[in-house]
Amino acid sequence: MRTFRGLAAAFLLAVAPGAWAQLDNAPTPVPLPIPIAAASAAMPAQDLDALRTVHAREINDLSTFKTIGLQRPVIDGWLEGEDGQQFLAQLRAADPGAPAETIYARAVEQLASGNKLPTVWLIDIPLYKVVPHGQSVLRYSPYFTTIGQLQGSDECDSLADCFGLPLRSEAPLYDVYEVTPNGTVTVFVSSVAPTEELGGLVRRKGGALQYLLPNRKLWSAPVLVGTIKN
To answer: What does UniProt give as the signal peptide span (predicted)?
Structure first.
């Protein structure tokens, strides 16, 4: 089980994640009451560092990163149904000026990140997103999850493994951002598909639950609430 450090005392009352280590120059956070679990890396750190040096261009431009997720015919069929039409409607509401083909391409890209078709949930609780320490959440990024998923499981070696992250997005420490729904909101939940990079030299298991938010206008602005180790 992974652990998490909160930055605000109020956050301690809302959720019960654990304590994640900070970088040496980061502020000391208030620890939360879940123990830190050891996690072994699928590939030695020195090997990953060597890959980053040799393949810096490919890693930076994501040219070899592949998601082994849903195929286009499956996605097309789902988008024709009631749940798929809700998904497209949220995407259109998020960016009313975008051409129809752009909206559809975004839908395909988001749905292909999962290894099964999403289920539709109505929720009124906060969701969370991790980004490399010091970075911010992109305005339209739809990929969020729960605190429970961030705590991880013994089946994954790291957050990067659970969430199928490319090497460009992997970091020793992540900032955790929270978004709150404006009332009860429809979300689309699936499990993260496996990914591979650099021709299979790097493989991620995926498997964590992801909550797709195709219309971020239905949610608050992201608020930094803590940090978490990979």
So the answer is: 1-21
Within-domain flag for 106: no
Give a yes or no: residue 74 inside a domain. Answer: no
Report the sign of the C-alpha dihedral through residues 44, 115, 229, 25, in that order. positive
| Domain range enclosing 135 | 4-69+115-229
- Classify residue 66 by its DSSP letter: E
> What CA–CA distance (Å, rounded) separates 126 from 92?
23
State the pTM of this model. 0.78
Beta bridge pairs of residue 120: 188
Give the total number of structural domains in the chain: 1
Angle between helices 82-94 and 100-111 (to 10 degrees): 120
pLDDT digits (tens, 9 = 90+) for 90-119: 999 999 999 999 999 999 999 999 999 999
For residue 84, being part of any structural domain is answered with no
What does the block give as tokens for 198?
């650099």
Instruction: Determine contact, residues 175/222, Cβ cutoff 8 Å.
Output: no
